[in-house]
Task: structure prediction
Amino acid sequence: MPSSTVENGYYYFVHDAEVWDAKKCEKAAKHTAKDGYGTKYPFEGFIGGCERYGQRRYNGGCIRNDEHYDGEILPLPIVADGFQIIHQSTWGYRIVKGYQARAAREAQETNYGDKVYWDHLEKSARELQAFFLSKGNTVKAAEMLTRSLADALRGNEGT
Result:
């Protein structure tokens, strides 16, 4: 149910966040948007920018549910497990399949590298996890999915 909030002395109408199921998330993550001339965006999963999500204030305000507000807040959707919304600098927001390896997630969230590199980090972490499991070292195997991007960039330190 929509609510309202006061920020910096302004009265905002807060919309309910959409809840996306896995099917909708998968479809959005695979979609490549196009601009007005039909040129494809350089990445998949674009779901919108400040025109669709965020906080906006209007000159003269707006009327929602027969009440006057200075503006409105449109929250990002709540996505299914295994997906996440990341900010694409200068573009807006995009939905992507989440990674289990911490290093891959950190690289994706900070836009370090690209999808090919993030996939490589994820695959590498899983291969190292499988290697250590085959050797019976469950502690080291668990570390492979939880080590930071900085640790992953330092290498495997001779292991």
